Amino acid sequence: MLNQEVLTATLKKIPWFLDLSPTSLKSLADLAGISTFQANHLIFKEGEQDPYLYVILEGKVCLESYVPGYGSLPYCTVESLDAIGCSSLTPVVRQKTSTARALEKTTSLTFQADSLMALCESDCDLGYVIMRRLANIVASRMLNHRLLLLRLISDQKE
Known about the structure:
This protein is α+β, with helices and mostly antiparallel strands. The protein has helices at 4-12, 22-31, 113-122, 124-157; strands spanning 33-37, 42-44, 52-58, 61-67, 71-78, 83-84, 99-102, 106-112. A 4-stranded antiparallel β-sheet has the order 1-8-3-6. Strands 2-7-4-5 form a 4-stranded antiparallel β-sheet, with helices on one face. The chain is globular.
């Protein structure tokens, strides 16, 4: 396991944490772990209640969604400094809304969702930064997913 200084230095390199105070960065580093996934590893499956948020440091992850009649279809490739597992931070919808599969060896910062949410609630500045970033990620993924579904509908009409 990496020590707190290394985790704090890693967090400082992630653009969406640049606005955080040293105290907030230290608190976030206290929660962070490192996970490594080999190529083709299923990080989580659609419908599961995987309790982690992952920030990709290196590697690539494919997000897939099951569409009846089509099977599991990729709709997004996630790379360095992007996050997966955002639904674990929502109090109502904690089940994963997609399947995440490592396309190559992938290393991520890993945060236990309940602990991260408690930190966001106690440190409102940190909570605002994280939730603002996650809102952008969710909106982008919804757009990608919508475009996939529209392509499928369009292909059916041809």
